[in-house]
Amino acid sequence: QKLAADTAELGLHPTETQLSGLLEQLNQLRRKIAAWIETQTLFMPEAAQERARAAQKGGVDGSAGVKVYNIPLWLPLALLEKGLKVGLELQQYEWKLREGQAHDSLEEVRHFLRL
Fold first, then answer.
1. 54 vs 61: CA distance, rounded Å
2. Mean pLDDT (10-residue bins), the chain, 115 residues
3. pLDDT digits (tens, 9 = 90+) for 69-87
4. How far apart, in Å, are the Cα atoms of 30 and each of 6, 20, 34, 94, 108?
5. Would the CA dihedral through 47, 50, 52, 54 be positive or negative?
6. Which residues have CB under 8 Å from 90's CB, separation 6+?
7. Cα distance between residue 52 and residue 48, in whole Å
8. Contact 40, 48 (CB under 8 A)
9. For 49-55, which contacts have Cβ atoms below 8 Å and span 24 or more sequence positions?
10. Of 94, 76, 92, which is closest to residue 84 (Cα–Cα)?
11. For residue 108, what pLDDT is reported?
12. What is the Cα Rg of the chain in Å?
């Protein structure tokens, strides 16, 4: 989300330094997502099937023309919403991830309230 906001804030005449920094961040994120997709294919074949279905329908996938921050990660909850089966252990991992993100966000709010 922050990367999408940074891209939108560039304005009409960004400097070469701003462009190169943003491009480096976008490429780094694309590599991380590619590694995630590779790992996810091993442990969640349902996600690979859904990704292939979306690509056939012309949906968002990992292709070069798609903005990297719009590539779906197909976490367990998203697959459940599509009606696919996902193991309980993977659902619990996602829950722990979401819980950690919530704690981080609360800590950030607390920090700003102290200022």
1. 7
2. 74 81 90 95 92 80 69 93 93 96 96 91
3. 889 999 999 999 999 999 9
4. 16, 15, 6, 21, 26
5. negative
6. 43, 44, 76
7. 6
8. yes
9. 49/84, 50/74, 50/79, 50/82, 50/84
10. 76
11. 94
12. 17
